[in-house]
Amino acid sequence: MDGIPPVSVVGPILNIRNITENSTTHVEIMTWLSNQPESSVAFLCFGSMGCFDKQQVNEIAVAIERSGHRFLWSLRCPLVKEKSWIVPIGHPQEYENLNEFLPEGFLERTSSMGKIIGWAPQMEVLSHSSIGGFFSHCGWNSVLESIWCGVPIAAWPLYAEQQLNAFQLVVDMGIAAPIGIDSGTIMSR
After folding, report:
1. Does the residue 9 lie in any domain?
2. 5 lies in a domain?
3. pLDDT of the residue at 151
4. What integer is the mean pLDDT of 128-138?
5. Is the CB of residue 160 less than 8 Å from the CB of residue 168?
6. Model confidence over 44-82: pLDDT tens digits?
7. 118: domain CATH number?
8. Which residues are CB-contacts of 36 (< 8 A; sequence separation ≥ 6)?
9. Is 166 helix (H, G, I), strand (E, B) or coil?
10. How many Å apart are CA 147 and CA 31, to the nearest integer?
11. What is the arithmetic mean of pLDDT over 120-143?
């Protein structure tokens, strides 16, 4: 390989400084976390592109409620399809009315144990002392942030490199627990 310069991988680089934001939503999230006991909150977040259909959202909600555990759930509605000149693309949006996608009465019944948000300040949430576990899609940045913050991962890969990342975390490194799901099926009771 003469003549080929050495290549070193750099990044992604974690922003572990200046992660504070002052929006009302951000302050509400961090205040809520600060009122929870140490390592008591399960954080569910599936990346900037991760979302589930209504049936899966309902099943997750039922499981959360039955568990009785505290939770912070970053819930985004399914992709809004857009056309591009290459392929159809989309991006998750914030829910306008969570009650349309959650079991009837879920928000009221779980209001003392959990909080549902849209976009999450993930690095700051993971670094908070109240977070005890992370249900993650295993995107590379999420994996790095969780490892850096020392938060255990429940691996729920959705697409792209996430399957490989989850495999490495669960099998090779032994630092994550798998959520047993076959691709394309609904995780149900």
Report:
1. no
2. no
3. 97
4. 97
5. no
6. 999 877 778 888 999 999 999 999 999 999 998 766 555
7. 3.40.50.2000
8. 70, 130
9. helix
10. 24
11. 95
